[in-house]
Backbone:
């Protein structure tokens, strides 16, 4: 028995429409996050130094980056930073160090990022790299690991913010008299 092409073509479009609902996941909004800074952190090194855009050697972009137990890195398609790390961190640190009406400080720190990610197995956010006081200061390596205090993107933001504050404190401590 030969099937009619007209019969097949009349059932194919509805069948495809029914299958499409099974193939694609529902729409999820992409969430954007900024780093937060606790007010106490601002008092500690206000006006002490300024930061230029960081050099980003980490490979991290605007999407949250997660390291799996097998070493594989994955970028979250639904959670993003408002800026890439090379712009986000100096912006946050400069806002923390800003003093109303004060001129920009003469001390400038240059930072090279090597890690800006969340280790899922160890449940920590890692900020690592090296910094130097411009123009010809000695490079100082750093690795800051902040534990995640919960689950979800808010825990990552909290840990990343705490790591950023800690980086600012470390650098400021070296230039304080």
Residues:
């Amino acid at each position: 028995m030969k099937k009619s092409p007209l019969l097949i073509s009349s059932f194919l479009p509805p069948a495809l429409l029914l299958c499409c609902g099974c193939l694609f996941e529902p729409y999820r909004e992409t969430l954007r996050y900024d780093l937060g800074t606790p007010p106490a952190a601002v008092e500690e090194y206000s006006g002490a130094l300024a930061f230029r855009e960081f050099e980003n050697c980490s490979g991290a972009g605007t999407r949250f980056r997660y390291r799996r137990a097998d070493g594989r890195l994955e970028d979250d398609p639904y959670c993003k930073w408002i800026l890439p790390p090379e712009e986000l961190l100096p912006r946050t640190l400069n806002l923390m160090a800003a003093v109303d009406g004060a001129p920009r400080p003469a001390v400038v720190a240059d930072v090279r990022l090597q890690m800006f990610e969340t280790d899922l197995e160890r449940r920590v956010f890692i900020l690592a790299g090296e910094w130097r006081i411009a123009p010809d200061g000695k490079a100082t390596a750093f690795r800051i690991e902040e534990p995640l205090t919960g689950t979800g993107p808010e825990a990552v933001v909290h840990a990343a913010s705490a790591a950023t504050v800690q980086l600012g404190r470390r650098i400021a401590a070296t230039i304080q008299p």
Summary: The chain has a mean pLDDT of 82.
